[in-house]
């Protein structure tokens, strides 16, 4: 590279010619790809487990996020390398499908890549490594099925669901209130779940947050919370047995679609116009009163005259409510969204046992609570916290807990956490390697070693001696034939995860292994990276 000047004295840079550029191919390209994947995994490794560290991420706008959620960390990182982007997508796939285990899946993929690098250096072809990994992943998934336990739960007996959600929340910033948070998440999921079809629609669970108060003030509301207040300060703040008109039409006179001009040259004409406008408002308000509405929720605003008239007619109203919130209110109250006043009928009104306006602290913040709805299949988790970052991280934690509860309703099989499932799979895969006579057995053994990276990272992050702790737990599992022995991260005095109540969902753990294996196979099969300028 050299600096030169044109005839006008303007500087420009002369770069090397395209032919002189080197391009990585074959083993060098594979090693470069592996090192990119390992670099991403190394970032997340310290965030794994209940004692994992948090990451502080600063956006280009200066916004700061503090989290230890793998998917959030990778999503907000500015990644240029294409292989590193594959690792980001891997974490997002786990988040979309399962909702939990986003850090573990990346750490697992990084360990598989590390082991693959050793095999490539020994001269084993990457295709044989990929095939060996595929065999080993099938063995591990089948072994997880064998060591999994099923548990029964009902609408009133949901303690096992809470224990599993607590395992998810134990690695989050909310772990000091993990029992109450897990209970809120489980109750919310059971409120909207269809237990016959084993299906949960998480869109019916709204998660709202408000700065102020403390984390313990977080509550579950069997209804909807709207971040609005009554349109007039003198309107009643509490309405019992409300009949709600849900409108998407504005409280204002109709406007012509063409350009128009009105000439008013006398007082009489002005009064006529004003009376006509008032008649429009009167008719609209009277229409709502005639059908029996005791509360109006409107998507649009209305001017002071309409507001004043609503207050005088004793018809409370809420304005500027968003479309998503309107849909949730309609689902919860059993009402219909009405686009025109002419279509308003008593059958289209929603019912709620109690609608109240609640104030917070010494601020002027107010919110509308719509509770005891006709259809309670829409609920709200209302989070309080000391600052915005705390609330955002709590929302992410609650989302993970909701996903875990949903997965357990779909499939009520669990495995034990604390790395016990990975150690048990590692032992099973190691034993199965001897049955494969080909080169693949090296890859199968390497897969078993990679499985050990999760419990080792847990021990490392908990301040324990990683190799010594892992060896002790592994020998205990083999000696006692007990797949529940894991890493005692919380210093509870026992390695038995059954006694510590540390559970994870079976489908979440299986998905981790399958997704990590798929991405590693894809990376191993890339032996050349061609950029657009090289075509």
From TrEMBL:
Question: Pfam families under this entry?
Answer: Cpn60_TCP1 (PF00118)
Reaction(s) catalysed by this chain's protein: ATP + H2O = ADP + phosphate + H(+)
Question: Annotated Gene Ontology MF terms?
Answer: ATP binding; ATP hydrolysis activity; ATP-dependent protein folding chaperone; unfolded protein binding
The UniProt keywords, alphabetically, are: Acetylation, ATP-binding, Chaperone, Cytoplasm, Cytoskeleton, Hydrolase, Isopeptide bond, Nucleotide-binding, Phosphoprotein, Ubl conjugation
Superkingdom of this protein's organism: Eukaryota
Give a yes or no for keyword Cytoplasm in this entry: yes
Location within or outside the cell: Cytoplasm, Cytoskeleton, Microtubule organizing center, Centrosome
Q: Which InterPro entries match?
A: Chap_CCT_epsi, Chaperone_TCP-1, Chaperonin_TCP-1_CS, Cpn60/GroEL/TCP-1, GroEL-like_apical_dom_sf, GROEL-like_equatorial_sf, TCP-1-like_intermed_sf, TCP-1_chaperonin
Please provide one cellular component term from the Gene Ontology annotations of this protein. chaperonin-containing T-complex
* Claim: Protein biosynthesis is one of the keywords in the record: no
Q: What does this protein do?
A: Component of the chaperonin-containing T-complex (TRiC), a molecular chaperone complex that assists the folding of actin, tubulin and other proteins upon ATP hydrolysis. The TRiC complex mediates the folding of WRAP53/TCAB1, thereby regulating telomere maintenance. As part of the TRiC complex may play a role in the assembly of BBSome, a complex involved in ciliogenesis regulating transports vesicles to the cilia.
Quaternary assembly: Component of the chaperonin-containing T-complex (TRiC), a hexadecamer composed of two identical back-to-back stacked rings enclosing a protein folding chamber. Each ring is made up of eight different subunits: TCP1/CCT1, CCT2, CCT3, CCT4, CCT5, CCT6A/CCT6, CCT7, CCT8. Interacts with PACRG. Interacts with DNAAF4. Interacts with DLEC1. Interacts with SPMAP2. Heterooligomeric complex of about 850 to 900 kDa that forms two stacked rings, 12 to 16 nm in diameter.
Q: Which NCBIfam families match?
A: chap_CCT_epsi (TIGR02343), thermosome_alpha (NF041082), thermosome_beta (NF041083)
Q: Which family does it belong to?
A: Belongs to the TCP-1 chaperonin family.
Name of the protein in question: T-complex protein 1 subunit epsilon
